[in-house]
Each structure stands twice: as structure tokens, then as C-alpha cells.
């Protein structure tokens, strides 16, 4: 992977979870983000000195710095030249989500006949914004985004494995939570913050400094995240936010990688052609023929095919 151009950047806010002033990003969140960006490939982080980062504690905070993500293959080999997934539309949900994203039973009391009934039921069940605690100005916020309806259809069979019918549950209480209007429209839907598992609960993690007023109040807030929400749907929302937030960076790095590969392939072809020309000159076989093609006739290297010698054995 291109080591000159980062494909992810996090803003490491200071906050006071559990009474301590901390500055950093949970290691598990960084690894999960890399996993999604690498097309569901697991790996490890190395620091600027190429030393491996201990990943046994997913809740450890990764301090600000420069890190490299290396894909670890099934056989234990390392891959530093992996391709990136650059859009949510191209991303395929994993068959199994990571253990720390699990929980949530996906149960809801009754089917509803309209979106407004679902929205009202969500607000009644949650009672308040699960991030700010506000009781007014609430919106029912989708975890698996409503705009992903076609994507859900494309990956229906995989999403069924998350425990429910994703098409039926897209507009249901097991896919929606109550958020204050600004935290929904200006926050979650604008990828300013993500919901991530941290320290035993689902936490609001701000990754961008576009809304410093919200970040100063709600970064690292542990939420009373409803058990009715399928965690597979929450992971889909996480991936959706990853591509919305970092998609342009991922695309720039992948395009640069593709160009380097194309240039390297051309260099190898040119080198092979040069060696063939040298071999022909050494063996007196630098013959050319006229090819009167549709371009009006160009001179090309003649490809000479020699028959296999027939050897007769005398008995």
C-alpha cells in the first residue's frame, strides 16, 4: 500500500470517559475501520518504527501518530499491497461480524403499518435521545441506512444471517433509534460521529472536527443503546459511515496504486521488449516485415515460428 498517502485520518479528541482525560482513538475502532476499507481483510497495525501494535485490548487508545495497516493472510503471510474498497456500494457485508459487535436481540413488539408509526414507537421505547438525553426534537434514526435499500436487496442472503429479514426490518424498531435532530442530520448522517463498541457499551465516537460544539459535549459518551437493535445492522451503519467519511481518500490512494501498477507493468513490458530485441541482434534474427494493415502499413517485429525438429532414429 502507498506509504506516502494515508487512506484514513482520525481526529483524536480529548475527553473524560470514566473521569480520566484521554486523547486517542480506540484501537478496535481503528482496526475495524481498516478491516472495512480493505474489503473485510483482517490485519495488524505497525507504528512508524515498523513495530507491531499490541492488539489484545481493543479498548486501548491509539495515541496520535503515523501507523501502517498490514493485511494478515489466512496462512499467516503479510500483504502490504492489498487493494482498497472505496465505496459502500462495492462493499460486501461479512458473513460473520466480529464478536465485539455482537449482542442485540432484534426483537420488537408488533409490526407497524406505516413509517410514522415506527418512528413514534421508537421515540416511545427510547424515551429520549440515546446520546444527549434530550426529550424533545427527536428523530428516528436508521442504523442500516434507508438509502441502502438497493444494496440490501443485493446482499439479502448474507444479511439474513444477521438474524432477521433485512427488507422487512429496514423500516422497523430493530433498525432505528431516537436521536436529537442535530445529532441525526448534522451528526450521524454527516459521518461526524460513529456508533462503536467500546468498554462494554455502544459509544458515540467523534472522528471529525466539523462539529466541535457537539464533539466537546458528546465525544466518548456511553449510550443506553437499545438491545432491540440488531448489531449486524449497526455494523452496516458503521461501514456506511466509513465510506462516506473516508471514501474520497480511499479512492485517491487506490487510484495512485493502480497507476503505479500500470506504470510498473509498462516498464516490465518495455524491458522484456528490449531484451528480446537484444537477443535477436545477437543471433542475427533482427528481421522485419511489412504489415499492410488498416493503419496504412506499419513496420513490426516479425514473429517467427519454428517447427519442432523431427529426429529419425536408425535401428
UniProtKB/TrEMBL annotation:
Residues 254-302 are annotated as: Disordered. Residues 261-281 have a biased composition (Basic and acidic residues). This is HNH nuclease domain-containing protein.
Amino acid at each position: 500500500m502507498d506509504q506516502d498517502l494515508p487512506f484514513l485520518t482520525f481526529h483524536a479528541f480529548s475527553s473524560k470517559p470514566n473521569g480520566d482525560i484521554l486523547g486517542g482513538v480506540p484501537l478496535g475502532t481503528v482496526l475495524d475501520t481498516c478491516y472495512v476499507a480493505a474489503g473485510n481483510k483482517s490485519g495488524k497495525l505497525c507504528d512508524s518504527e515498523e513495530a507491531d501494535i499490541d492488539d489484545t485490548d481493543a479498548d486501548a487508545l491509539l495515541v496520535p501518530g503515523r501507523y501502517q495497516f498490514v493485511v494478515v493472510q489466512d496462512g499467516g503471510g503479510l500483504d502490504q499491497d492489498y487493494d482498497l474498497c472505496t465505496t459502500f456500494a462495492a462493499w460486501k457485508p461479512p458473513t460473520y461480524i466480529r464478536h465485539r459487535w455482537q449482542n442485540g436481540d432484534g426483537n420488537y413488539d408488533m409490526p407497524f403499518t406505516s413509517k410514522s408509526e415506527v418512528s413514534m414507537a421508537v421515540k416511545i421505547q427510547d424515551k429520549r435521545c440515546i446520546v444527549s438525553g434530550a426529550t424533545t426534537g427527536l428523530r428516528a434514526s436508521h442504523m442500516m441506512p434507508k438509502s441502502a435499500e438497493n444494496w440490501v436487496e443485493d446482499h439479502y442472503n448474507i444479511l439474513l444471517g444477521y438474524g432477521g429479514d433485512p427488507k422487512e426490518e429496514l423500516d422497523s424498531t430493530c433498525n432505528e433509534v431516537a436521536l436529537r435532530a442535530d445529532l441525526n442530520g448534522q451528526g450521524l448522517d454527516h459521518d461526524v460521529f460513529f456508533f462503536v463498541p467500546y468498554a462494554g457499551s455502544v459509544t458515540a465516537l467523534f472522528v471529525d472536527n466539523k462539529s466541535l460544539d457537539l464533539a466537546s459535549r458528546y465525544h466518548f459518551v456511553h449510550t443506553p443503546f437499545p438491545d432491540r437493535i440488531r448489531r449486524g445492522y449497526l455494523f452496516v451503519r458503521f461501514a456506511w459511515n466509513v465510506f462516506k467519511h473516508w471514501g474520497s481518500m480511499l479512492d485517491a490512494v487506490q487510484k495512485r496504486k493502480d497507476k503505479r501498477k500500470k506504470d510498473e507493468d509498462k516498464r516490465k513490458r518495455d524491458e522484456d521488449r528490449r531484451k528480446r530485441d537484444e537477443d535477436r541482434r545477437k543471433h542475427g534474427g533482427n528481421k522485419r516485415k511489412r504489415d499492410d494493415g488498416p493503419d496504412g502499413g506499419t513496420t513490426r517485429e516479425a514473429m517467427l515460428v519454428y517447427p519442432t525438429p523431427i529426429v529419425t532414429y536408425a535401428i
